[in-house]
Amino acid sequence: MLRGLTGAGLGKLESNEQFIELAAKYGFQAIDIDALGLVESHGVDGARELLGKHSLVIGSIGLPVEWRHSEEAFLDGLPKLTQAAAAAAALGCKNCCTYVLPSTDYKAAHFMALATRRLRTCAQILGAYGIRLGLEFVGPHHLRTQWKHPFIWTLEETLDWIDAIGESNVGLLFDAYHWYTNGLTVADIEKLRADQIVHVHINDAPDVPLEDVRDNGRIYPGEGVIDLAGFLQGLQRIGYKGAVAQEILTAAPPTDSPESLVQRSKAGFDKVYAEAGIG
Amino acid sequence: MLRGLTGAGLGKLESNEQFIELAAKYGFQAIDIDALGLVESHGVDGARELLGKHSLVIGSIGLPVEWRHSEEAFLDGLPKLTQAAAAAAALGCKNCCTYVLPSTDYKAAHFMALATRRLRTCAQILGAYGIRLGLEFVGPHHLRTQWKHPFIWTLEETLDWIDAIGESNVGLLFDAYHWYTNGLTVADIEKLRADQIVHVHINDAPDVPLEDVRDNGRIYPGEGVIDLAGFLQGLQRIGYKGAVAQEILTAAPPTDSPESLVQRSKAGFDKVYAEAGIG
Amino acid sequence: MLRGLTGAGLGKLESNEQFIELAAKYGFQAIDIDALGLVESHGVDGARELLGKHSLVIGSIGLPVEWRHSEEAFLDGLPKLTQAAAAAAALGCKNCCTYVLPSTDYKAAHFMALATRRLRTCAQILGAYGIRLGLEFVGPHHLRTQWKHPFIWTLEETLDWIDAIGESNVGLLFDAYHWYTNGLTVADIEKLRADQIVHVHINDAPDVPLEDVRDNGRIYPGEGVIDLAGFLQGLQRIGYKGAVAQEILTAAPPTDSPESLVQRSKAGFDKVYAEAGIG
Amino acid sequence: MLRGLTGAGLGKLESNEQFIELAAKYGFQAIDIDALGLVESHGVDGARELLGKHSLVIGSIGLPVEWRHSEEAFLDGLPKLTQAAAAAAALGCKNCCTYVLPSTDYKAAHFMALATRRLRTCAQILGAYGIRLGLEFVGPHHLRTQWKHPFIWTLEETLDWIDAIGESNVGLLFDAYHWYTNGLTVADIEKLRADQIVHVHINDAPDVPLEDVRDNGRIYPGEGVIDLAGFLQGLQRIGYKGAVAQEILTAAPPTDSPESLVQRSKAGFDKVYAEAGIG
């Protein structure tokens, strides 16, 4: 399982280049980055070279389509999606992810029908380029009532939704924070097949009651109470081999320098990987 | 548009034969009947002959699959579905319908995901036999709060769901009662394409406030307040050529003889077809 | 059925504007034109206005994706397809068409598998924008052996392929020339449903043996031997209401002025529509 | 990887019970057997108990649908398929397989379209029960010209076909004999993902030129020239964990007793598993 970083939790990164250099310097193997932006700034060959010389792969791109609101906004995103998919594929990235909010202002059943059709279209376009779509269920309790109607937030619901979407390239973005806030166990991970998991996020939670854990109250791996060793061991046991990307969402951005934050991230990974007995 | 009957509203029919004979005697051209039952009792050739000599076609069969509850019950219905589809196809029937309750005790979004997948499977099996699946949205207001969570009940939601199911052989069962209780107009019908409509139900409503119309308070066509002439004209204008089947759901079954009820039904059809200017 | 024109057979058109003006001047109601080009040159509003003031609709756009050769070329076309689909939808055009050559240098079964997947992807993208994909089977006999292996060319094969593609928005581009060169009859048209037909091409054939008819030997409607009255009547009988677009493919481009060619086209339409008894 | 047996190569088995007992006695862990037949003769509980007490799982059932000829025959098989799938699922079997002949008397492209649609329907039905469909490409050269037109026989073509079918539960039945006769290498196996492989067959080939290897000239593992150690190592390296079932197709059935043939099979497995360094 590759050590991965997203930009979230690294403070004010000056550039993609800085992100790439710091990730490589501190032993990370994967980054979640905007592949299309990288291709636009460096060209395909330049972007490949930049990643290659730092021995980095792209863990996942984000889904550049607004599927949660109007049909117009959704359709507006599709040309961009084809370009982003082409860029990701050109850089060897096979994953694209989006998150699923656990409540909605729309009527829940109707929104589920719309979202099913829209994400299917996204998956079909991504699939043409050999890219998978990962859906991230979101566990923090406060978000379940943030909008008018409950939507979905559990692992089981998300797996059922993936079946409803019905494309072979759709799977889970499995995030330790949402695993934790859903009250899931290592045994729940072990019931999955590795090929159901598109991408993994890792981060830790403070020692507060489960129902009070805030989505933007995340802390660095190894600094909190989530059983990340068990989380990683479960993933390894089922044969997951992809990236495990840190994503620290916080209410206010950290003010330390990016380098010190990447260093701190490395320390977290060192700790939890060691606890998990993973090389 | 073929004049059609379902058994609902005809009192205590003694047998399929009686149903068929009465329908033919009073000028109906289509009946909604259990094709598999007919094939089991008469054989394919016998059933064809029985229908043929009465110049009747089967308007639609009902979906013999319980898709609204447990996965086990759902799967149990699939062998039966293949048999029912084979029987319907053998008798020249190309339609199969099911209704959609407007509320549910399950979490609405999750149930929508499950139901999408299950109805897709049903549509796929039916499609192998050249049969379409019609979804009937259900309008009466009291049913929207009958179970814990609102599901879907509007035409627009149902069309969006059909898109989410994503099979080319899924369309609407368009029922005059649900059109009326949704407050829809003839213009709403005219926005549809004929190929979006799998089957049509006709029946009338008593003169009570719209929100008080009960699902099982239906009356015979022409005896109530629904603009059935407009309904039929709208359907004709968009080129719908299938069956229009009467379905009178009532709290208590009518006690008149089936023959007098079929006669009454004929009078209703005569009236509303004449008002609509349809031959 | 709308009288329609493609650029093929109109000689050296100077501009889209000339095409539009001539089409309108001679009573045509639909043109097959590059919607994206029109939007790029005039903006969405300008293009709408240009078409609107000439009372013209766009019959169909061409599929801007090379699905017949390398995977790379195929993928390169997808961003363009999203843009073309968005432009077509913005201009109210709901159809996109491509033709199917009756032989191929690739192994036929393998190419069928690849083409099925590629055209499905195209249909899925078009479907997101509410646009249908029409497949044109190609009848002239000489093309059946033009490349190494026979592919498909009959109506039945094409319908079976549409089922294999399996998207609800795929249908036929039905061309009188290919209907004729396949030896089909009016009865074959009457077996179709209108919703299976995405778009129609019309043109005529010289009086030569059927097997000698050349794909690029087409002549103007009414000047040859095809039973175009029967063709149009069949389409009308099944309820086809879309455009019937002339497409005169010739070995050498006609040298007459576009205006005289559009005039000649009008005379042809006048003749065959009159023979068919269509207003 | 589970040691598995099919009935092919075991001579005249007297009953399912004998098959099961011999398989267990000689250390096999999986058998390919008719799950529906077993359920019909023993009931679900009885069949589970029979398999359970012999520590056997069912590797795969065969697809009980004739998808290679008439539409009528195809449809006739669907009710049986639902029953077979239900039986397999009840016994914990998640795989169903069919083979693909490398030539056909039908026009190749048209047959590919028909077969794509039919196998998709089969996959959809199987998928409802959580069962995967494995397609076995068939390599022996003589079969490529056995019927009029070449169809498909390579790994690459089969993977492309799986994409054309477009259901997430379709993968490969990977047979050592077809791997060998296609001239494939261990590196070709290593390019696959384990989740692309539904089931594996193992058997050996005599020392004759590759193009002379006959489909029904198979011999026991370890008695021929195929690099079965490499084959098994490749599968293990990509993480395949399912059954590896022996299937010895011969021109005439072996005349030795089933017990001696199972014993011989065990010796073959012992040898090639040992050579592969698999426990």
Per-chain topology:
Four copies of one chain form a homotetramer.
Chain A: E1 2-5, H1 16-25, E2 30-31, H2 35-53, E3 57-58, E4 61-62, H3 71-90, E5 95-100, E6 103-104, H4 108-128, E7 132-137, E8 149-150, H5 155-165, E9 170-175, H6 176-181, H7 186-190, E10 197-202, H8 228-237, E11 243-246, H9 258-276
Parallel strand pairs in A: 1-2, 1-11, 2-3, 4-5, 5-7, 7-9, 9-10, 10-11
Antiparallel strand pairs in A: 6-8
Helix pairs in contact in A: 2-3, 3-4, 8-9
Structural summary, described in words:
The structure is a homotetramer of 279-residue chains. Chain A is of the alpha/beta class and 279 residues long. Chain A has a single domain, classed as TIM Barrel, CATH 3.20.20. Helices cover 43% and strands 15% of the residues of chain A. The first copy, chain A, has 9 helices and 11 strands. Chain A has helices at 16-25, 35-53, 71-90, 108-128, 155-165, 176-181, 186-190, 228-237, 258-276; strands at residues 2-5, 30-31, 57-58, 61-62, 95-100, 103-104, 132-137, 149-150, 170-175, 197-202, 243-246. Chain A has a 9-stranded parallel beta sheet with strand order 3-2-1-11-10-9-7-5-4. In chain A, strands 6-8 form a two-stranded antiparallel sheet. In chain A, β2, α2 (35-53) and β3 form a beta-alpha-beta unit. In chain A, α2 (35-53) runs parallel beside α3, α3 (71-90) packs parallel to α4 and α8 crosses α9 (258-276). The first copy, chain A, is globular. The mean pLDDT of chain A is 97. Chains in contact: A-B, A-C, A-D, B-C, B-D, C-D. Chains A and B meet through α4, β8 and α5 of A and α4, β8 and α5 of B.
